[in-house]
Write a structure and sequence with these properties.
Layout: H1 4-19, H2 21-27, H3 34-47, H4 52-63, H5 68-75, H6 79-96
């Protein structure tokens, strides 16, 4: 089972990948980032059956690169609530990663 610390580190890498996706895609012409792509696919596959709120959180924070503060404002929630949702997301991933 993947630890919550490892999931949090992976989510940082996923956010980084998506924030520079065009760079990764251009670089893949020369060197394929297989490890990163496999990790992204693994997490995206786990999210396919996630509850709607956790799915939206994953997309907003890690694919669209929003901060928890910005997302709290956009969704009309307090930042601690988004933090708690993120903890639920980590727990969901712990239980649903391949």
């Amino acid at each position: 089972m993947t630890t919550d610390n490892q999931i949090r580190e992976d989510l940082k890498d996923i956010r980084y990948y998506y924030s520079l996706q065009k760079v990764f895609e251009q670089g893949a012409k020369y060197v394929k980032p297989i490890g990163v792509l496999q990790m992204v696919d693994r997490y995206n596959n786990a999210m396919q059956n996630a509850p709607a709120q956790l799915y939206a959180l994953y997309v907003s924070l890690y694919i669209q690169n929003n901060s928890q503060t910005a997302l709290a404002e956009e969704w009309g929630y307090a930042r601690p609530y988004i933090r708690d949702l993120n903890d639920k997301l980590v727990s969901y991933l712990q239980n649903n990663l391949d």
